[in-house]
Amino acid sequence: MKLDQGYLIVFEGIDGTGKSTHCQLLGDYLESKGAPVRRLFEPTKGTWGMKIRKLLTEGRGDVGPEEELSWFMNDRKEDVENNIKPSMANNNIVILDRYYYSTAAYQGALGLDPLRICRENEAFAPKPDLVFLFTTSPEKCLERIQKSRTEQSTFERLDYLQKVQGIFDSLNDSVIRRIDTAPPLEEVHEILRGEVTALIFGQDK
Ligand code: TYD
Description:
Layout: E1 7-12, H1 19-32, E2 37-41, H2 47-58, H3 65-89, E3 93-97, H4 100-106, H5 114-122, E4 130-135, H6 138-148, H7 158-170, E5 176-180, H8 185-201
Helix pairs in contact: 1-8, 2-3, 4-5, 4-7
This protein binds thymidine-5'-diphosphate.
Thymidine-5'-diphosphate binds next to helix 4.
């Protein structure tokens, strides 16, 4: 199947909401229909992404909020230039696990201005066609994380995640679809499928 334009579909939400599972399911579904899919995630595994991953597992140390923000921005600039723009130019459907809404929420929760972060990102990062913003309570997400992982990152403390969720709740953008992931997986997947098929093929199913 060839599309006549590229699409950017973003998944957002705090850790433990089920983003990655739904990215996978949606990507598999679109591929089963023969659609050209490119799966990406941020932080990436590039130079900046690896620096960020170290910060996540080892703690922030003396890295301040502005410096942390600059690492995420540098990582995204590379991702935009090397992966996102070329894939979209090739008329792919890019399925992206986290984008600049995460930066607004997570680095915003460190005291930086979320709207400024969005503006600075929108200056270089393509605007998504759809953003699925998953909303599950931080308490429930932490419960899930603790069941599935032995180590918890600096980014997964309850008070921090509550602030992050608060900023996600405050974001206002016509491309955002807020999705409650408490219902069964298949039910949520159906909703996502409906939205994406309507966007790409102009109908509900
Ligand atoms: P995540 O995709 O959840 O990693 P994993 O698959 O290992 O769970 O992202 C790692 C963390 O990075 C997550 O806690 C959110 C954080 N993050 C930011 O703080 N700012 C950002 O701009 C992005 C993209 C992620």
